[in-house]
Amino acid sequence: MTAPAMTSPTLRTLALVAALSALAACESPSKITQPTPAAVETRSPVAAAATTAGGSTAATASATQAQSTVASVDLSASRGVGAGPGGAGAGAGAAGSTALMAAPTQRVVYFDFDSFVIKDEFKGLLDAHAKVLVRNSGKRLVVEGHTDDRGGREYNLALGQKRAEAVLRSLTLLGVSDKQVEAVSFGEERPASAGADESSWAKNRRAELKDR
Amino acid sequence: MRRALIGACSLVFHAVTTEQKLSLLLPRRRLLAWAAASGALAAVPARAQIRVEITGVGATQLPLALGRFRDEATSGVALSSIIQADLERSGAFRVLGGDNSLDERSTPELAAWRSRGADALVAGSVTRLADGRFDVRFKLWDAVRGEALLAQSKLVQAADLRLAAHRVADDIHLKLTGEPGVFATRIAYVLRNGRRYSLHVTDPDGEGVQVALASPEPIISPAWSPDGRRLAYVSFETQKAAVWVQDLSTGERRMVAGFRGSNSAPAWSPDGKRLAVTLSREGPAQLYLINADGSGEPQRLTRSNAIDTEAVFSSDGRLVYFVSDRGGGPQVYRVGVNAAGDGGTPERVTFSGDYNISPTLSPDGRHLAYITRQGGGFRLMLLDLTGSAPVSLTDTTDDESPSFAPNGRLLVYTTKAQGLDVLMTTTLDGKIKTRLLSTGADMREPCWGPFGR
């Protein structure tokens, strides 16, 4: 505690400097030149802020915007046909495909802990899907990889991606064009089962094959 | 003598909830009124509670007397209560009652305050100006030396009165401890309430919560731009992981990485122009550098056949720390980054345990905090990069996603309490912890914002 005592002129100078720097800090929001995606609905609470104790009107708010204000974006209103977590989503995706044979009903490959190796018991399932894709070059598939919830989210996202890619690789080895299939991951974000025991975890370590 | 006594005692200190201290919760009321009017946003937490726990021997606290600021009641924001809560939560102060008749123009009897046990005294005022702004003034006196230390005036809009109170607490903290406070910074986190996800921004005291994004699909990995104006994050709204950047004040947002496969783990370069991201466009997860506006082609930073992810830049922008399982299990590595974006050969940094993830680096580059898996549980660890062994900071077993405060003195992370994910902050010695929980909802993925919002 070694600061000298404040004298009146120093205080006034300090107040002036503080006032000037406070004013300088109030910048107008930055402009983004590219258009935002059409599906996004944007609402700004600045208008709500303007109704408080005799404050700035909405017209001046953009020029001297409060530093605390966060604009809120709500995506829920733009949801159309969305697959729920763990849902089959087959209805949304099957439209437009002209399959000559019925799509295989088995759509989930399960994995061991920390593994992305495809076990023999699922080779038949992949074979069936590969046949459909090879015969219908217009048909599209997405493989969604998942993990159980043990471990970090980003690492699990990458592990889920490896599972999806292992399935993709198996399909391409069976003759499927990689233009027909995309591998994505949900990591631990879309569990099929909510429990915290081995049987739940085993149900979550999976790759799902979904029509697009 | 008194200080020595305080130092010698171990303390357990429970603060009353911040709601009880504040006479008006203007930002939350405004937000709730808007949400009710628009019929949207079910994800705003009903009650966020903060609980301060200070444990351990040797927590020396400076006694400081603080009364109400003149006219704070008419301003609608209880500035002195916010300042008191901030100072107490830092663990460095014990706040005594002040004199509500004092303000920054007073000439208090400092010797009398000293004899009442105060080492420092604060008084102030808040005055509404003709244009609707407020002038927040305060003075800080050293009661031991009998002199004034600091006098400040802050001109703010009504919406920034809370921010002004936090800045006053920062000024006091800096003057008396020599360390910058982080009371005026913000923490971003994700809230999951059933099947709804929302990206929140909060003051570190849990108040002033605002929602930047609400979505029916998961949101993970928020990251603050160095200027505090934007958040990068991963959103699954397009049915896969993609990286978005959103301007906080306008809500404008843009997808900056939506390549084939998964796009995730955004980390800002210190100049705010680039992001390190994890892309799977050429196979399993690898690190790339992209322009923060999404323009141009990604430059590949790591080349391995393993998973490389969770990049974080050093403050000088020369190093990127990241997680890789190229050696078997995930460990933390670091790699040099030159202007062209080419990486050098990565160097391993963590050697204890077989599963180390989620690195966060202190601004001075000296400490690395991360999560280690030990016997099925996950624990927050702190590593001094100048050479000692890592130490654990908690005794919980579900710790995740640590993030350093910009003064390098605190960490925010999540853990589980009563079956819910909650936010915690801790000092680097693990002794002072605060808990932020939201009833009925999971709080996760915290990221501590920079100085100067």
How would you describe what is shown here?
The complex is a heterodimer of chains A (212) and B (453). With 212 residues, chain A is an alpha+beta fold. Chain A has a domain at 108-211: OmpA-like domain (60s Ribosomal Protein L30, Chain: A, 2-Layer Sandwich). In chain A, 34% of the residues lie in helices and 13% in strands. Chain A has helices at 8-25, 46-49, 58-61, 90-94, 123-135, 153-173, 198-204; strands at residues 41-43, 72-74, 108-110, 141-146, 181-187, 206-211. In chain A, the strands form 2 sheets. A 4-stranded mixed beta sheet of chain A has the order 3-6-4-5. Chain B folds into 2 domains: 61-184, TolB, N-terminal domain (Rossmann fold, 3-Layer(aba) Sandwich); 187-448, Neuraminidase, CATH 2.120.10.30. In chain B, α5 (79-89) packs across α7. In chain B, a hairpin with a 6-residue loop joins β24 and β25 (391-392). Chain B has 453 residues and is mainly beta. Chain B is globular. The model of chain B is unreliable at 4-47 (pLDDT under 50). The interface between A and B is large, with 72 and 95 residues. β2 (72-74) of chain A pairs parallel with β9 (210-215) of chain B, so a sheet runs across the interface.
